[in-house]
Amino acid sequence: MSVKQALLSGELVVGAGNIYASDALFEAGMDPRTRCDRIAAARAARLLAAVQRVLAEAIAAGGSTLKDFKDAHGTVGQYQGQARVYGREGQACQRCAGTIKRIVQGQRATYFCPGCQH
Q1: SS3 string of 46-98?
Q2: C-alpha to C-alpha distance for 118 and 112, rounded to whole angstroms
Q3: Between vectors from CA 86 to CA 73 and to CA 16, what angle results, nearest 5°?
Q4: pLDDT confidence band for 6 (50 / 70 / 90)
Q5: How many CB atoms lie within 10 A of CB 94?
Q6: Residues 76 and 69 sit within 8 Å (Cβ to Cβ)
Q7: Distances (CA, A) of 106 to 79, 87, 115, 117
């Protein structure tokens, strides 16, 4: 199973939806197609820290609103405006200026930078 699909499964971490999983993998410099059994402990620790950081940023931004989500106060989330790779296909990477790519994994869109994520 790929690391992106593992993050979305809910078995490893709860709350790392598609947007946050893509961004956390970018932060960790990890290719979303990497098989879970190919991840060394140091890389797994780096990914864990990235997931925690991205989820904290998302919470601070009120989550993400792509359709009609609103919190209990009627406020839309703002994280999608600061997403590093999610929804940015064809745009320049903020880190290396390469081009953000989109692939489909498990019938879900995955966004990543081939130059930064190995």
Answers
A1: HHHHHHHHHHHHHHHCCCCCCCCCCCCCCCCCCHHHHCCCCCCCCCECCCCCC
A2: 10
A3: 65
A4: very high
A5: 13
A6: yes
A7: 24, 17, 23, 19
Q: What is the pLDDT of residues 47-82, one digit of tens each?
A: 999 999 999 998 888 777 666 666 667 676 767 789
Instruction: Give this prediction's pTM.
Output: 0.89
pLDDT at 78: 66
Q: Amino acid identity of 103?
A: I
Query: Radius of gyration (Cα) for the chain, nearest Å?
Result: 14
